[in-house]
Each structure stands twice: as C-alpha cells, then as structure tokens.
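Protein in question filed below.

…
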Amino acid sequence: MQHPHDRNSNPDAPGDGVRAGARALPEDVGFVHDWLPVYAGAERVLEQMIEVLPAKKVYTLVDLLSEDERSFLQSTPVETSFIQQMPFVERAYRYYLPFAPLAVEQFDVSDHDVVVSSSYAVAKGALTRSDQLHISYVHSPIRYAWDLHHDYLDRGSGVSRHLRNLFARPILHYLRMYDVCSAPRVDVYVANSNHVARRIWKRYRRKAHVIHPPVDIDRFSVESEKRDYFVALSRLVHYKHVDVVIRAFNEMPDKKLVVIGDGPEHERLDGLAGPNVDLLGHQPDAAVKHYLEQAQALVFAAEEDFGIVPVEAQACGTPVIAYGHGGATETVRAGITGLFFDRQDPDAVRDAVRRFDRRSDTFRPEEIRAQAERFDVETFRSRFSNLVRRAYGTAPMSDDGAGVPNTAAPSAAMAESTDRLL
C-alpha cells in the first residue's frame, strides 16, 4: 500500500480541506507565527507568504527582532502574547514553552478573512471562527516532543540528566497531547517537505500539501574552480551531528574541513577537532557565500525537515554529501548533484567522502545549480498563491447540508504530483 505522502500533494486540486470555487486572494489575512527571535529559516517562509498575501497583522508569542532584522515584515503590525512580558524573556523565552498553548489561544484573530499559521510548535492552535479558513504551513510537528523526545532526555549524565527527565517528561507529554488535540483546528495543512508530510500523517492523520520553502538562490554564484577543502555549515547543536563529520575528517588527515556556525556545542567540538579541521564560528553572509562557492563539497550529517543549506550549496554548483534521510533526499539528486551516506557515524561519512573523491570530476556545476533553481522564491510564491486561491472559495456542503467544509475524509487527489500539475 502506497503511503499517502510517497509523492507530493497537489495544491492545484481540491483535497483535504481545499475548497473549489473562487480564484481571488483574500483581502484581510492574519498570520500566526510561533516566535520571532531572529530572522532565520521559518521567518524567510513567513516573509514570502506576506509577499503573496495582504497581511493585516502578525501574531507571535514573542518578538525579539532588532530594527535591522524586521524589514521583512513590511511594517505589518505585530501583536505579542503575555509571554513577551515574562522575566528574562530575551534569553529564556524557550523555557516558557509550557505556557505557549495557552498564550496562542489568547489571540483574537476573528476579524480576518483567512488565518495562516506558520507553525513548528503551537501556532496551528490559534482559535478561529467556524466560517474562517485556517491554512497552516507546518515546518514540523513539535520535534522535541515527538522525534527528538528520547534524544533530548538521554543527553548528559548524573544529576543534570535526572532533573531534566523529572521535569521534561510531563511537559513533553502535555505538549504532545496539545499538539494532537489542536490538529483539527486547521482546514488546510501545508508541509515544507514530503518528510514532514509523513510526520503530519503519523501524528494527526491529516494529509498535507507539499510546498518546499523558498531559497534565495540568486545571492549565490556558480564557481567552477573549487578549492581543496570541504565545508560543514550548521548551527552547532547536538542533533545536527557535526561531531560525526569532525570525527570522520580527523581520520582523514589528507582532507581539510571548514566548519561554519555557532551554538552550545562549539566548545566541545573545538576540543574534538584535529589539525585539519577549522572551526570558524559564526560568519557573515559574504563569508558563507565565499566558502560554499569554493568548497569541494558540503558535508551534511543532519536529518532535517527540509534543509536549506544543501540547496544553497547546490546554488553555488557545489555537490552535497548528505545523510540519506529527511529533507535532503528531496533536494539532492544522488549521483548528479551529490551522494548519500546511510548512517550518522564517522565510518559512513568517511566512506562517502572517499566515494566522492573517486567520482568528483563527474559532477557538473551547471547541472547542480539547475537543481537548486527548483526551490527558488518565485516557485514558492506561485505554488503558495495557487493553493490559497483554490482554498479560498465556496465550501462544499457536508452531509448534513450545513455548509461546513468536509475535511474528515482525505481526498485521493492529495497524492497527485505537485511537479506535474503546477
């Protein structure tokens, strides 16, 4: 039996909660976004959704953006929750996560024609009227409550681990219950990858349209002449498995690795790195661009929901050596724009790098760049706009004739290919 998300869903055909009818875009849209701490991947998606739809207000639990970072909101008013007023919120906002379900339900979004939630935690739980359309772009169901539950609890040792387990277990249990209970509040689900769409089906038993995030590939240039180093670009946190890449290169002293990024794992990784591994920490965009464009390949060991970094590397004509699970399998073409390894351990990475060496001259920068162009900003805008136009129409009648959108039974049309029909 084919899984509901073995192929992309089709934003152009009515499906789970998508209403056939009017083609006009709504005139008054409210956006609900979990947090605004920095301008990062989820905020880049929000930025392009605001470009497509007339945003009247953005609702978010906490807004910590500096004046230099907030231009992407295009002067849209921002309403925050009571968490914004909590002590030490700038540094500790994540510790207030247990209050997030209550906080998001306090937003009054009833005046908007359409509500769009950008959710990787609780944003999809916003309360809407029965006649409002709620579209949720899900970056992932809450990862630390679901997929990373045991990874988080198993970290550390001794007292610190015992205390984490004591307090975290009931909180994560509560968040999982809330995540499932709030799932029916959404009319139309949009996933950022087939990988996430499978998670949505697993957690909520709801089908999701797949629209990959926008990647600003125009800021990168193809560099045909590569230098003699490999690059790892990542936030330095445990689940990114940068330590696996470093250990692999420690055992390949003839290979040079440049690691770009910062995070709580920096000190530990710096102590782990051999003489052929350079940890550069956080770097400005110009430096990131330079290193990506001239690297032999990007080495990427994380299992990401989508993974913007591999697409950015391919925009430079740089091949990708990636862990063969998660979003990377949707953006990297094995043997054409990169290759995969099947385990997150140093031996598997080392084997992949050796395989890459044997066939490095078969990768064509122009062909690699062409793959990245499938995920550009204009493609996202077109697909998201098309989905909203299809969804914002006349609701089909339910069996009781009440005019309620019938979202209980997933449509077979959801399994049609986005690439073929858009």
